[in-house]
Amino acid sequence: MRIANSTTSTGPQTSENADNQQTAPVVQCQNVTRSYTGRGSGSLLGRKEHTQTVTAVSDVSVTVRERELVGIAGPSGSGKSTLLHLLAALDVPTSGVVTVNGTDTSSLSERALARMRLNNIGIVFQHFYLLPALSARANVALPLVELGLSRKERRSRASTLLEKVGLGDRESHKPSELSGGEQQRVAIARALSTKPKLLIADEPTGELDTETGASILDLFDDLRDECALVVASHDQQTLDRMDRVVRLQDGERIDDHA
Ligand SMILES: Nc1ncnc2c1ncn2[C@@H]1O[C@H](COP(=O)(O)OP(=O)(O)OP(=O)(O)O)[C@@H](O)[C@H]1O
């Protein structure tokens, strides 16, 4: 994070470069900055107030291509979640351009952004966010209601996905009847239900023991043919399994990507 007391700062405009150039880009950030502007106290006595700008991500460029597994690493507060939200089209940049499947996210209305997420992106949050009253299968099928699939199609796709993540025999279990690793698998199956081109996961192994975490990472490897994957993590075991790692510090990209 960088804090500035005016809203004029942006980093130098550099171009993106040598990330894997073999396959088509799924999501691309070009010189992206995300700042938050709020009120800060301006004097020691706090009598004056002035505008304070926190730059969470500064002039970052990243391209994620089909079949890639990309990690995002950095200390707490370095901008990982902010970058993940930009890549997931949950947020738009203050400056720079994020394109998902070739479309500039800043050019879309909220409604169009939601549709773009539904059509292109699966998101797995650290705390799963499964609906407790619903079975595993109903949780996985939920996004498909918005896609307009029939009940039969929804059930069938959800069952197939639960089978795929190794939970074919747990379909009717509620989240509270599943272990942490099983809940994470349900969350991954749900994120995959819309057949996304990009799967985004925030600390996907953060709440899991080493062995369960490793099985989730095996699953990500198996999904490579279906979608690109971006994972923000502090966990070295997770980062070691990625094709490459984007490293952030104070909102800036510090790995050698030129
Ligand atoms: N909505 C917001 N308003 C103001 N500042 C914010 C906002 N969101 C994030 N920040 C600031 O931006 C910086 C980067 O935050 P971010 O959550 O992206 O970091 P992180 O690397 O994901 O951290 P952690 O590993 O602790 O989750 C932090 O200093 C944070 O306080």
Automatic annotation (TrEMBL):
It comes from the Archaea. PANTHER family: ABC TRANSPORTER ABCH.1, IMPORT ATP-BINDING PROTEIN. InterPro entries: AAA+_ATPase (IPR003593), ABC_transporter-like_ATP-bd (IPR003439), ABC_transporter-like_CS (IPR017871), ABC_transpr_LolD-like (IPR015854), MacB-like_ATP-bd (IPR017911), P-loop_NTPase (IPR027417). One of its GO terms (molecular function) is transmembrane transporter activity. It holds the Pfam family ABC_tran. The keyword Transport applies. This is ABC transporter ATP-binding protein. The keyword Nucleotide-binding applies. CDD domains: ABC_MJ0796_LolCDE_FtsE (cd03255). Residues 27-258 form the ABC transporter domain. Keywords: ATP-binding, Nucleotide-binding, Transport. Signal peptide: none annotated. SUPFAM superfamilies: P-loop containing nucleoside triphosphate hydrolases. Residues 1-25 are annotated as: Disordered.
